[in-house]
Specification:
heterodimer, A: 326 residues, MetI-like fold, B: 301 residues, mainly alpha
């Protein structure tokens, strides 16, 4: 419990750090940030709205910096991140809401497949020592992981989408459908999910496999494995319950860092496939200079990573009894 | 680490050859692909021909020139990022590991914060606010890339600090600075070189991603901006695959070569991996049908 509380405290601190980055960055802008931001869309707004928005964003500069900071934090705590410029009059929170579900769907699907498949390949590769899984698969994975994810995505769009027109390569579901709990809609969502998910799996699977393989090689040389073998335990029991369970720990510890990589790659994948998740919104917000939306999305993606990390910590206490003991 | 050992390792050797190829090609750009890479040389989207061996891009620029010249800034950003990030990581990681106590707690907290905040979204945010230039790109990449390595260095110093030779230096009255940089640092060279290469891969890849999103100086010719212009000019939909394939392959092969060097170094420095190789040979020669956790090789009679 102590362990989880300490972790929770750290994530709260990390969240605060992300909030502070959001607060400080616009104020580092050369010149008057309010004027710069407002100038880009001033013509679309009534003078009253400009004033209201400046107030809402804490950019009206009537208060000192500390006062602005307090206002900013209290607004953020209430989930009030101001208005989006490019989707005005929608608030940032509303816009983020539309993207969150798609990012979670794509990210979780890809992560689950790549984690399970990657670790299994690593386990068998280390176990067999020679042959296809041990000698051929790892170099191929290093090569696949070396490609920029968005480049693989572009190539897939070009070959499968443009040349052969095999599979939809943009959006999250067919344009002709409206979201509804029907089989047709679900099929369309799956069809659109397929290619982006496969690309993310290809780019990330090597990390799991290689980590697992290297750790598993060390664990297999440990004495308790020889002991298990000497006791005459079944081979698959040694492989999974003895070796793999212990070898999994570094992968789980590194999960937080890996997750950051996955989400980072996903930003670009979503952009290439015009998949309407947080990453796609983020790139769009940068393009339209929608600063509040950018900051909100950064905060949201960070929150997602922090929440996932905490889940991993909970899982870790189940996996490694030593942590529970304190 | 002995460089000749790395050259003798087959995986490491391939890696070095691949990386050297791209470094030499970039340095020799004025000779290999003479002319201004940003010059409009002909009709847009022309397929590869004898005149333009990689064809032309959607703006009518020579793709071969752009690819060769693009390596210069891409590699420069990679090296700049690696040098800056690893320097910061050495300073912070070693300080934390060596001095321990409150200093360690605070610095470790800082590393963990940077590790847990997702890199690319932070990069995008930073790049959107800062004026794009090569030095700001290197700065932001180093800012998001140092923490991972600092944590590794910290744990290395933690274990090295307990060694007898450090204790000997302390009793012989050496200063902290001397102990850190003359006694401990030389023992970490392998890890530092490995981290440097890892950081180089990150720098090249992330800079390419930023350029692809249009967040760097777009008049520069880099592998990333090449991809950006190919994508924005609709090369994909007019079937001009030659406009985006070369730059993408260059980034991938450079990163692949660097990964191979790291992999080769792992094999040299990690006795377990070498022992595993020997074991694999034994398993293979004995032609065991079923592999066991502890391979048992029956002696030939």
């Amino acid at each position: 419990m102590n362990f989880l509380l300490r972790r929770l405290g750290f994530y709260v601190l990390a969240y605060w750090a992300a909030l502070t980055i959001d607060f400080v960055l616009p104020r580092l802008l050369p010149g008057d940030p309010a004027a710069t931001i407002m100038g880009s869309l001033g013509s679309r707004l009534q003078p009253g709205q400009v004033e209201a928005m400046q107030k809402a964003l804490g950019l009206d500069h009537t208060d000192g910096l500390p006062q602005q900071y307090v206002t900013f934090l209290s607004h953020a705590a209430r989930g009030d991140l101001g208005f989006s410029y490019s989707y005005f009059p929608a608030t940032v929170t509303e816009v983020i809401g539309t993207g969150l579900i798609w990012t979670l769907l794509l990210g979780l699907t890809a992560l689950l497949i790549s984690f399970v498949l990657g670790n299994l390949l690593g386990v068998f590769g280390a176990w067999r020592r020679v042959g296809f899984l041990a000698n051929v698969v790892p170099p191929i994975m290093i090569l696949a992981g070396a490609f920029p994810p968005f480049f693989l995505a572009l190539s897939a769009v070009y070959v499968l989408g443009v040349q052969f027109n095999l599979i939809p390569t943009s959006h999250a579901f067919a344009d002709t459908l409206a979201p509804a709990p029907t089989l047709e809609f679900a099929a369309s969502v799956l069809e659109h999910l397929f290619l982006p998910a496969v690309i993310i799996v290809i780019v990330t699977i090597g990390i799991w496999t290689l980590t697992m393989r290297n750790t598993m090689v060390s664990v297999l040389a440990d004495d308790f494995i020889t002991m298990a073998e000497a006791k005459g335990l079944r081979q698959h029991r040694i492989m999974f319950n003895y070796a793999a369970r212990n070898a999994l720990l570094p992968s789980v510890t590194g999960f937080g860092v890996f997750l950051g990589f996955v989400l980072s790659g996903q930003v670009l994948i979503e952009q290439v496939f015009a998949y309407p998740g947080l990453g796609f919104l983020l790139v769009g917000a940068v393009g339209s200079r929608d600063y509040p939306l950018m900051q909100g999305l950064f905060l949201m993606i960070t929150t997602a990573v922090l929440a996932a990390n905490f889940l991993v910590d909970v899982l870790y206490t189940r996996l490694d009894p030593r942590v529970r003991a304190g | 680490m002995d460089f000749r050992l790395l050259l003798r390792n087959p995986i490491g050797r391939i890696g070095i050859i691949v990386v050297l190829f791209f470094v030499v090609a970039s340095l020799g750009a004025p000779v290999i692909a003479p002319g201004d890479p940003s010059e409009f040389v002909g009709d847009p989207n022309q397929p590869p021909s004898s005149e333009h061996i990689f064809g032309t891009d959607p703006q009518g620029k020579d793709v071969f020139r752009q690819t060769v010249w693009g390596g210069r800034i891409s590699l420069a950003i990679g090296f700049g990022t690696a040098i800056l990030a690893i320097t910061v990581a050495i300073l912070i990681g070693m300080t934390a590991g060596f001095f321990g106590g409150l200093v360690d707690n605070l610095l470790t907290l800082l590393m963990n914060l940077f590790l847990v905040i997702p890199g690319l979204p932070l990069l995008i945010l930073l790049a959107a606010y800062l004026a794009p230039s090569t030095s700001t790109v290197i700065g932001t990449l180093a800012l998001t890339g140092w923490a991972f390595h600092a944590r590794i260095f910290r744990s290395m110093v933690l274990s090295l600090r307990e060694k007898d030779f450090v204790a000997a230096s302390i009793v012989s009255g050496e200063g902290n600075f001397t102990i850190l940089f003359q006694q401990i640092l030389p023992n970490m060279i392998n890890i530092i070189v490995g981290s440097f290469i890892g950081s180089l891969i990150y720098g090249i890849g992330a800079a390419t991603a930023l350029s692809f999103l249009g967040l760097t100086e777009m008049t520069d010719v880099t592998w990333g901006t090449n991809l950006f212009w190919a994508q924005n000019g609709g090369a994909l939909f007019s079937g001009a695959w030659w406009a985006f394939v070369p730059s993408g392959i260059c980034v991938a092969l450079t990163a692949f070569g660097l990964s191979l060097i790291n992999y080769g170094m792992d094999e040299i420095t990690n006795p377990r991996l070498r022992a595993e190789r020997e074991l694999a040979k034994v398993v293979k020669n004995a032609a065991l049908r079923r592999v066991r956790a502890t391979p048992f090789v029956p002696r030939a009679h």
